[in-house]
Structure formats: structure tokens, C-alpha cells
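Let's do one together. I've listed all components of the complex below, 502 residues spread over two lines.
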Amino acid sequence: MKKPILGKQTFLKDNNQRLLSFEKFVIEVYDRRVDEKPLYTGRYFIILKDENQSFTKVKNLFKTKLGFSIANTADFWTESINENNIQDADVLIYNDLGIALIGGEDEQIKILENANADFMMVPEKIVYVPDDVPATLNTKSTWGITATQAINSQYTGKDIKVAILDTGFDVNHPDFKGRKITTESFVPDETADDVHGHGTHCIGSACGSLDMNGQRYGIATDAEIYAGKVLSNQGSGAQSWILNGILWAANNDCKVISMSLGSRVFPGQSYDMAYERAAQDAVSKGAVVVAAAGNDSRRSWNQFNPVGSPADCPSVLAVAALDETLNIADFSNRQINPTGEIDIAGPGVTIYSSWPMPLRYRTLSGTSMATPHVAGIVALLWEQYPTVTPTEIISELRNLAQKLPGLLPMDVGVGLTTAPLKSFS
Amino acid sequence: MKNIVITISEDYIKELGSISDSLRKDGFEITNVYEFGVIIGTVADENIIEKLRKRKEIIALTEEKQANLPPPDSDIQ
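Okay, and this is what the predicted structure of the assembly comes out as:
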């Protein structure tokens, strides 16, 4: 038989130049946060050049040349000036200030601009509330425990090893007294102690139990905790530390590996092969791998960013964040790249959980908070079905998810993760 | 000095040891070899990268990524 003609695979040089200019493009086009908000109202202020001059001359111009109807602040003796009362006026004159607000048509504005009179014209600015109004989030909301039905589940994740690869763990946190905890640091020159706080918060959502007042904030209350420190006290980590952590967790028979971490991915970018290999290896050893989809979007500004890495790997479940009304969180990323799907969503806005002592608790938002909720539920499923494969666990996880009609799969995947409830048959 | 992550084609994973040895000979300073076919290391100059790219055993060669969290006082994590 004739031999098949096979193509030759070539390895093209990494076109860094292109990636860099693409990155620049993305920053310019996608991150135009400030520019997306209009700066001006379309109205103008006329400011008299000489403060002591009266509006008489200018008024004349308004009336004869432009046919403007004029309101004057002097008309408002007692009431404060409300625009509803001057709807029919084209001009509002602030006598005391020597300025007038003009709401004319473009042609009228042009005539004024060319009038070359004793005044200046400036466009009226729009005033915004600052973008980051810090919210005081001291609410002890543990709505996620109720919404996911974990509160009603008979399962506790008993003896299931749950790995949280993060900034480490505060092992002396009083809420975790008597729990089985293994820690390991993959960060050079740092112990597994959590100085950042992020890791302790994530472990709290996945494996915590009750707070000092008896309020429950964790899903798998009896799971065995494997805290792998792969991010430094400054909150950053090299890819090799994360691969080390995945391998450590998989080799220690952890049944779920939770990663509330990631690097930003650009539209059109493919998933990382090395992460995918590590995840495949973990799955082959019996673990389910979950990761945060990332918080790079600002949906209220019409800004959507793709699922980050490693959540965009085919062998990693990407978790989106929901708020208490089960709406998608403003910052939660979406599927934009073909392989970067959202698999499932979890509670990720105003999440109360453990924090390193002495603070003890904190309420935070992020896909980082949604991810350990899913990890905790995976642990409950492993307790229910101890002999099945990770693929079967994932399919049961999907089956159990609460559908969210009105939200898109590209945003929330199969919907809100929910806990298995024991059947009493 | 660049940190490089190399992924070996599945067809060659069994030869990970000998591939690592020959990468070393090419000037790739290995810091980690993972059983699932990933090798991490550093290279001193770009020419070595070009040389490595031509190898048929390598299916992906990228610069090592970093993962970053927001500072602890940020409300969105």
C-alpha cells in the first residue's frame, strides 16, 4: 500500500513581539476603564471674563441671536434650584457667580463660540462616585453554607484528604483544634505559616466548621486538611512551586486539589501545557482539581475577561463566583477562549471565613472564595462514593448543581454547586 | 537568565531521564523534572532556547509563569 503522506510538525519561534503588542492592545481596548465613562454632559458653562460685568449684554445675545429662554437664580428666592423647575429654559444664569449654564443645540453653541464676546465657554463635567468605595464588610454572612445545602448534608468529608494550595495555613487557629492537618511549604525560605491570610480563609470555606459563636462557615467539616504553601507571604508564586504542590497533593492521596490562584489569560491564548500535564497526573492518581476562574472582569463596565490559568486547562474545573441573590459576581471571569470554560459556580461574594489570628475572621469576595466551596462539596461526594473515579465524581458534581435559568453557561457553567444529601433508604 | 518550562511529548515521557541529560548538555540548567513530562530550568542566553525549540520531543516551551494574589487588605480576592 502507498505510504501515507504525513505533515511535518514544525516549532515556530515564540512570537513574543506579537504577544507583547497584543497585550498592549488588550490593555488599551479592554482596560479603558476611565475612558468608558463619558466626561462631559453636553452642556456648557459660560463664564464672564470680568466678574463685575453684568449679564445684560450676553442676555441680549441669547435672546436676539439664539432665541434662548432664560431662567435666573434670582427667581429662586426660597426654594433650592431644581432642574425640574427650569425644564423649559435653555439658560440658567447664576447672577452671583457670573456664570451661566447653557443647554442649547450644537448650532447655537457654535454661534456662541464664534460670538467672540466677553465670556469663556467650558463644557460641563460629569461627576462620579469614586470607583472603589471600600465597603465595610464585617457581616458574618455564611449564606454559602445554606445556598449550597451543605447545612442539610449528612456528609462531612470524613477522612477525605483535601489539599488547598495557597498562602499556607494558620495551624494554631482555635477553630481547627483537634483537626488532622498536614502542611508543607514549597516557597523557598518561608514556612507554611500563613502570613498573607488568603490560604486560611480558603481552608475555612472548604474544611472549616463553626466559628466562636457556633455559626458554621465551612463545607467539609471533618475532612483531613493538606495545606500546601505555593504562594509567598506577598501573595505570589512561581509556576514550579505550584506544580510541586499539585504533585505533593496527588502523591499524598488527596482526593481534591483546590487552587484559588491564577495568572491572567488574554483572549486567544491557549491553556498552559505544563499545568495541564500536572492536572492530568493528579486526576490519574484519583484527585479532582478545581481552580478559581479569576476576578479580572468588571461586568458593570461591560468588561469581560477570560478564565485565567490554570483554571482554563481541560483537566481543571473552573469556578465562577455568585452573590447572595445567585447572580454572577461583577468581577467573575467568563468563557472567552474555546478551552477556557466555566464549569461550575460557587458562593463568592461577602464570604465569612477564618483568618490568621489575632483577627480570627474576615469577610471577603472573589472567585478565590467560590473555589473552596466546590472543593468542600467534592470531598462530601468522595465520602458518599469512595470507590469511584474522579471523572464520576465530577459528573455527579455537575448533576447536583442547581440550574440558574437566566444566567449563561459561559458565566456559571452548570450552575450553583450543591451538596449531596444522604438518602435514608 | 530565564526560567523556562518545557513539556515533553507523551511519546517520549518514558525517555524523560535521557532527554533531561541531553538538555543539560545543551546548556539547560535543570531545577525540576516532573514525572508527568515537565522539565523546569534556566537558560543563560536566547540561543539555547532556539536550539531547544528544534527538538522533536518538546511540545511546549514557555517562560515560567507567576501567580499573584491581591494584597491581603483587598476586599476582592
